[in-house]
Specification:
The structure holds 2 protein chains of 2 kinds. By secondary structure, chain A is mainly α. Chain A has 2 domains: 62-266, no CATH class; 283-520, MetI-like fold (Orthogonal Bundle), CATH 1.10.3720.10. In chain A, 73% of the residues lie in helices and 1% in strands. Chain A has helices at 11-17, 29-60, 62-75, 78-104, 108-165, 169-181, 189-197, 200-219, 226-248, 257-265, 283-314, 317-330, 335-354, 373-397, 401-409, 414-442, 446-451, 475-482, 491-520, and strands at residues 270-271, 279-280. A two-stranded antiparallel sheet of chain A has the order 1-2. The model of chain A is unreliable at 1-7 (pLDDT under 50). Chain B has 10 helices and 12 strands. Chain B is of the alpha/beta class. Chain B is 38% helix and 24% strand. In chain B, the strands form 2 sheets. In chain B, strands 1, 2, 3, 4, 6, 7, 8, 9, 11 and 12 form a 10-stranded mixed beta sheet that branches. In chain B, strands 5-10 form a two-stranded parallel sheet. At the A-B interface, helix 4, helix 5 and helix 13 of A face helix 4, helix 5, helix 7, strand 7 and helix 8 of B.
């Protein structure tokens, strides 16, 4: 198509664009239009900056709030209880294995033996368990006192600030009186923790006794439960380690800001609205997001790139007319609709297929959860295809004609030209397309919220490739699910904003990479 | 003359529409807000209440954040208000007023194909806390247990923790669903699934109710079922006007009939 001639604008355009002697505010219309468009592009930059400022402002306080919470966690003795609790949880896993073995045991005699062993395990831990649960009640009370004090203190300071800024004397007196009323004593950590420390010896003794009993009980275990038998010595070692840790534990040891930051970025537990202690560790969410994006990319890349190559190089004009609009139409499907399809159709389909005998060699099959990483990744791939297809097709289009003509002139076949000349020349653009597809996928919310299964745990990589058929939770999903319920300014609220910042940084760097790659291998302008 | 009539007509129209326009914004628990409160609102309108309702049910916590922010007239909650939520409301100048409306029974459901039909309280705690991970441990066929729970904004999530799990944390293998319906749907589709729902949702397709130490949830014997709990409406200060009229309606015999029909237990029946 010849370029539109600038000398023949429409009747309206000609009036607007022609050089005129008239002017407004000292500017001629051309200048005004230029300023208008310039201002619009300026606004997008300003909005972007405002978004960053907003995210940072809400998230900035997180580290200090979380730091304070972790400090209370230590001072109130919750940390102490958790150290003692870890071996107790392990013991539960061991008895769980025993129960399973008992259920599958063949003879009544074996069943009885395993039942006795289970009971021995349970009774051995009871004294320690009792002490820990008593200490937990005490620690929770301390924590509640600390939280109440903190809330009231913050409120009191607000009231005082309001009182000093008001000029109305009666209102000022009211506010001051109210502030006085909400004055409470700070909890005396030292006095309260003493009750915990006093029982340290007792707890250590109970745990050590438990290991002795367990050691003898383990010897008597039948060979049917060899895995439990081998796990017991390691467990006993862990209990001893925990006892050592309890003995050196001190409530006064300061919590560094580094600890707070580390437990956010590398923490493996995202536990909120807990009656014990909230933890904000992003690792499970991050792994979920990354795994889902990876699955989506692995599915979407071959489809969209080969579709782009075919459309650009081999398709007839008629085919192009059909393929391009159809692929671009996919973008118009709302993600919530895709989510419903994921629950109602794809989930049951994957689950049904996974139960076929002939497919049982695939890791993870037959699957149990219809809402899982693969399901979400599959739908996201579908959403990423239009973006990746269009951009990859553009990249192929931008390869100078001279390249293919030169290749033709050397007598190369069409296939040789495409795969040896055009695709290598467009590879940077194709890579950029894939990365921008990744950016699209990692920020998608609705589909993952509905379809990914929302299990906040690091997927079990022990399953090998089967890991993609496990449920997971994502960075975007957690914000959507939890932001509505939290009170503004709380640590939970700030933690969610930190997750938002993390997401923002990820998409920003993905986009930056895409741009750098595209720029680095730019073609000479033909 | 004509002009005057027109003005009066217009004025009446404005006042009438102002009256009809008054909206009760109700926020909070999904257990109450998905079925019960909307059907109460419907009948309230039928009995001549001139008020429109705006109901959003996203979990009990949202009741208090909305009441504190002044964006709701009534908060629905399937649990009692927490101390820090009361403090939050107080700091915004809102004194919470609590009204018990109905009793609910948290019902444990498993897939209809599951052979397990009774669990002890301890087993339930261990399953949801992640100590028991296989059905063979509780006398079923061998298979890993999939645990479905509500998400953290739900009052049921918290209530279940205190009532059935002695305040312990949910196991890491639990999956957090947005509402009762989703839990019922997943349990119905997964032979190894277990979850809890409000009694009103217990009859979903493909699921069956598990008795707890032999006790089935039964509206006639609420008190003896271990997982029964009161549900509440909260208002900012003493209710007045439309708010009061609606709450009075909920507690009237007509309201109680709807409550029983929706699968809850009316206060007078317990």
């Amino acid at each position: 198509m010849p370029p539109a001639s600038p000398t023949t604008p429409g009747p309206f355009g000609s009036k607007l664009l022609r050089k005129s002697s008239r002017s407004m505010l000292g500017m001629d219309p051309q200048k005004i239009i230029k300023t208008f468009f310039g201002a619009n592009s300026g606004i997008t930059i300003v909005v972007l900056v405002l978004i960053m400022v907003f995210l940072l402002r809400e998230g900035a306080g997180f580290l200090s709030t979380y730091h304070h919470e972790l400090e209370v966690y230590r001072k109130a003795g919750l940390e102490f209880c958790d150290i003692a609790d870890t071996p107790l949880k392990q013991q539960q896993q061991l008895t769980s294995a025993l129960r399973r073995a008992k259920a599958s045991a063949a003879s009544d005699e074996a069943k009885r033996a395993l039942g006795d062993a289970e009971e021995a395990f349970e009774t051995a831990i009871e004294p320690a368990d009792e002490i820990v649960s008593e200490l937990k009640t005490h620690a929770t009370e301390t924590k509640e006192l600390a939280n109440e004090f903190h809330t009231l203190e913050v409120g009191r300071l607000q009231l005082l600030a309001a009182a000093y800024s008001t000029s109305d004397p009666t209102r000022k007196a009211d506010l001051l009186k109210e502030a006085e009323l909400s004055k409470v004593d700070a909890p005396n950590y030292e006095e309260r923790i003493a009750a915990v420390i006093d029982r340290r010896e007792e707890l250590a003794k109970a745990l050590t006794d438990y290991t002795t009993v367990l050691g003898t009980a383990a010897v008597a275990l039948p060979d049917a439960v060899a895995d439990v038998k081998t796990a017991v010595p390691a467990h006993i070692a862990e209990v001893h380690a925990a006892v050592k840790k309890l003995e050196t534990w001190s409530w006064q040891e300061p919590v560094s800001f580094f600890t707070a930051a580390r437990s956010f970025f590398f923490g493996t537990g995202w536990i909120t609205n807990s009656s014990w202690q909230d933890f904000y560790g992003v690792v499970p969410l991050l792994t979920g997001s990354l795994l889902i994006s990876l699955v989506a990319l692995l599915i979407a890349t071959p489809i969209s790139v080969s579709a782009a190559i075919y459309t650009n190089q081999f398709a007839s004009d008629q085919e192009k007319e059909i393929i391009k609009p159809v692929i671009e139409f996919i973008q118009a499907i709302p993600s919530v609709v895709l989510g419903f399809i994921g629950i109602a159709v794809v989930g049951d389909l994957i689950k049904g297929v996974s139960q076929w005998e002939i497919l049982s060699w695939i890791p993870g099959f037959p699957i149990q959860e219809r809402l899982n990483i693969f399901n979400a990744g599959f739908l996201l791939a579908f959403m990423a295809v239009p973006t990746m297809f269009s951009l990859a097709e553009d990249a192929l289009n931008n390869v100078p004609r001279a390249y293919s003509e030169a290749s033709d002139a050397l007598g190369a076949t069409k296939l040789q030209t495409v795969f040896r000349v055009i695709v290598p020349a467009a590879i940077s653009g194709i890579l950029a397309a894939i990365l921008l597809g990744l950016g699209r996928v990692i920020g998608e919310t609705m589909v993952v919220l509905l379809v990914a299964g929302n299990r906040i745990a690091i997927p079990d990589f022990g399953d090998g490739l089967g890991v993609i058929f496990q449920p997971a939770h994502t960075l975007t999903g957690i914000i959507a699910q939890e932001l509505g319920e939290v009170s503004r300014g709380s640590s939970h609220w700030q933690a969610l904003f930190m997750v938002g910042i993390l997401l923002f940084v990820i998409s920003l760097s993905v986009n930056w990479c895409a741009r750098t790659i595209a720029k680095r291998f730019e073609h000479p302008k033909a | 003359m004509m002009k005057r009539i027109l003005t009066i007509a217009l004025l009446t129209l404005v006042t009438v529409s102002a009256e009809a326009q008054s909206t009760l914004r109700i926020r909070g628990s999904d257990t109450l807000g998905a079925k019960l409160i909307p059907s109460l609102a419907e009948s309230f309108k039928k009995t001549g209440g001139k008020v429109s309702f705006d109901i959003a049910a996203e979990g009990s916590s949202t009741a208090f954040t909305n009441l504190a922010a002044g964006t709701a007239e009534i908060g629905m909650s399937s649990r009692k208000v927490k101390a820090d939520e009361r403090t939050l409301c107080r700091s915004k100048g809102v004194a919470l007023n609590e009204i018990e409306v109905a009793w609910d029974m948290i019902t444990i459901v498993v897939n209809a194909k599951n052979s397990v039909s009774d669990l002890s309280k301890k087993q339930i705690m261990q399953i949801f806390a992640g100590d028991i991970t296989d059905w063979s441990e509780v006398g079923g066929p061998s298979g890993p247990i999939s645990v479905y729970t509500r998400n953290t904004s739900s009052g049921t999530y918290k209530d279940f923790m205190t009532m059935a799990m002695k305040g312990r944390e949910y196991g890491k293998n639990s999956q957090k669903m947005a509402g009762n319906e989703q839990i019922a749907a997943e349990v119905g589709s997964n032979p190894n699934g277990i979850g809890y729902v409000g009694y009103a949702y217990a009859g979903a397709k493909g699921t069956k109710i598990v008795t707890i130490d032999g006790k089935a949830p039964n509206p006639a014997a609420v008190k003896s079922y271990p997982l029964s709990r009161p549900t509440f409406l909260y208002t900012a200060g003493e209710p007045a006007g439309n708010t009061k009229a609606f709450i009075d309606f909920c507690l009237s015999p007509a309201g109680e009939a709807i409550i029983s029909k929706a699968g809850f237990v009316a206060l007078s029946a317990k």
